[in-house]
Task: structure prediction
Amino acid sequence: MSGNGIDLARYRLQRAQDHLKSAEILFYAGMYNDSLGRSYYAMFNAARALLALKQLDSKKHSGVISLFNQHFVKTNIVDRATGKDFNKARVRRESSDYADFYLVSKEEAQSQLEAAKRFLRTIKTTLESMTLG
Result:
């Protein structure tokens, strides 16, 4: 493993943690739509952190999700529930960003925030096992 891949993974994980912190702040401020988006981006950057270890990336969100599923979910490095959380988060984020009159409820934002927290814990553990192992 090259140092650059590890450094990039750490950088992306830090960005993911920053997005998660923003999602929490926005959630507690009652800004559920924005919190939902930041929760998704926390997951997105965490997934890209893992992909960096395999020197993989995509310019499209769908590509990142596809690569994540192909290289980490289908190979059982990450469990299927984690992959499903990531897919669901993308759909929710796209709906809240692009659909007219889509109102994000407190419960939906909270559900996505909790999913993002689980996702980041899983990714962090996986990163540690891949870089130490």
